[in-house]
Amino acid sequence: MPSLDHTRRGGRSGELSAPRLRVDTPERAGLDPAELGHLVREVHDLTAGEDPWAAGVVVVAGRGPVIAVQEAAGWAVRYAAYDPETDRGVELPRRSRVPMTVGTPFDVASLTKLCTAVAAVQQIERGTLGIDARVGAYLPEFHAAARHGITVRQLLTHTTGLRPELPLYDCATDAERLELLRAEAPSSTPGTYLYSDLNMLLLQYVLERVTGRTLDVLVHEGITRPLGMSATDFGPCPGAAATEDQRRPWAKADRGMLRGVVHDENAWALGGVAGHAGLFSTGRDLAVLCRALLSGGAYGPARILGPDFVDLLLAPPGLGFAVDRPWFMGELSGKGAAGHTGFTGTSLVLDPATDTFLVLLANRVHPCRRPPDSRPRAAAATRLVRAVRGT
Q: Per residue in 165-188, pLDDT tens?
């Protein structure tokens, strides 16, 4: 079993510590305070009115080691239920609502994929996982993936051809869920891009096979503990922002109003720990992850990846990370910005070209899921890059 000791200790022989994040003024970060003022106001606007974009939002943004914006707006818990007759949330009395704070944890949904990707690249760095190795070499019982020659790189770049998801939540047992995954063949030609949760689920099984450790342990020991991300873990997380009044037909399971348990139905069916979803985190913790990657894999005395392997992770098309996607990165896209979004309303972007990062967390699915709308994410990212230009 490969050792995680160098990751837990952090630094390597002769290395200096990388700067830790600190809260300071926009000017100290080399950012235009007027643009960031617009960003803060626009974040508050997202939670205003009777039918807001999201019940609550947290934004953390900065440049270099400086957090220049750390703001919360709206409510972590606003609604008691969703009323399908009126297509509106049933409002809690104000005294029963829970205000959003900058320390509120969120179900980060598909941002979990980023930690799965980092965990995979850590094993690639150690030589225990081959980036172009076939999944079948590690998991021969996953006969469909083995038969089609699916590789680790294809899992990380969503080019396996696997369809977006399987109804694992409808299976009665774990054995049935596992057999569905083992039998699932590509629905399109491998090598072409098709975003799929199944890629990170298969990658989870690969990682657990080559390390002998479960994914939650790999993420904790290899990423969150060395970086001091103490608010980041797989659920349950009782103090988290509420998500959905999850009921059929709009959802895939009947679970009622969710708070502190994973929203994704497949991750829930798998026990809350999954390669594609299940993590809870805060804006500050995710900013630390951004900072570590912008610093070549180091944060304070800790090092989670070597600089060359951070480059491998973030270079187009990205391993787990999406690169240069204007629909949620706005004007930050175009020169190598990397990040991801999550179905619950979460997103992060880090931009090596400007040394900036933006974490925007929202409980947009509270009280009910709605059509995708990433315009506020793109607008926030554009405010940040204009704050750099304005200096």
A: 999 999 999 999 999 999 999 999
